[in-house]
């Protein structure tokens, strides 16, 4: 995109804080107008004001819970009514459900699947055709290192949905390879954000060494750059590139046993 070209718009879900907010800033810095969605509109508006002040871009705020019926249709309908074309989509909204699989009812487990896998796929299905028609698009799916390594006890559906999101991103990347639409699954490890406060695991993860932590800005910068390169998978941070590389090289039973021991050690403190 050149300064003289048409302005593009990025839609970022879960944009009120953390990785979503960092991605909004990266797209703004690269000349995109923004549509920010989250459940907390007050925080969105404060962030929108700051982004407008800094970058002079148009920022729309859409208060929307993606767990609500036809949430994607509501977002798409509003943008269509306002004549907004979505050039880039960042699927960031999500949460983690701590504890064992049988410790919470199925309704909560179903919400994990809806928010972490179904909603990103539906949003991509809704907005990708317009991107293809324009010959340009960027779809960033915030996955996780958890989707690239063996599972551990607890948060049972989190790595499963993130693994599914990675495979979905890879397949869609290949399907849209000649269309000008880039699709990238960004797979961060532990990242400073409100994620662990929301799922009640802050005390637990605070025991981790500092070298394992990433900054949201670091994740967004790496993810944006890798999406521009049309990499199907982006793993921010040298430490997590090493960890996921080893996970691929080790025999499955060895990697699985290591994750089991590490998970147990972390839970015991």
Could you explain how this protein is built, in words?
This protein has 269 residues and is an alpha/beta fold. The protein has a single domain, classed as 3-Layer(aba) Sandwich (Rossmann fold), CATH 3.40.50.720. It is built from 10 helices and 9 strands. The protein has helices spanning 18-29, 41-55, 71-81, 106-134, 157-175, 195-198, 202-205, 216-228, 238-249, 252-268, and strands at 9-13, 33-38, 59-63, 88-91, 137-142, 181-186, 191-192, 214-215, 233-234. The strands form 2 sheets. It has a 7-stranded parallel sheet with strand order 3-2-1-4-5-6-9, sandwiched between helices. A two-stranded parallel sheet has the order 7-8. Helix 4 runs parallel beside helix 5. The longest helix is centred in the middle third of the chain and has 29 residues, at 106-134. It starts with 8 loop residues before the first strand and ends with a helix. The relative contact order is 0.12. Mean pLDDT is 89; it is low at 196-202.
At a glance:
The protein has 269 residues and is α/β, with parallel strands linked by helices. It has 10 helices and 9 strands.
User: What's the N-to-C terminus distance?
Assistant: 49 Å
Largest sheet strand order: 3-2-1-4-5-6-9
CATH topology: Rossmann fold
- What order do the SSEs take from the amino end to the carboxyl end, as H and E? EHEHEHEHEHEEHHEHEHH
Fourth CATH level, the homologous superfamily: NAD(P)-binding Rossmann-like Domain
* The CATH C-level class name: Alpha Beta
Count of spatially separate domains: 1
Number of strands: 9
Ranges where pLDDT stays below 50 over 5 or more residues in a row are 196-202
> In DSSP terms, counting alpha (H) and pi (I) runs of 4 or more, how many helices?
10
In percent terms, what proportion of residues is strand? 5-15%
Largest β-sheet summary:
7 strands, parallel
Q: Structural class, from secondary structure content?
A: alpha/beta
What number is the mean pLDDT? 89
CATH architecture tag: 3-Layer(aba) Sandwich
**Helical content, roughly?**
40-55%
Question: Which shape, going by the Cα principal axes?
Answer: globular
Radius of gyration: 18 Å
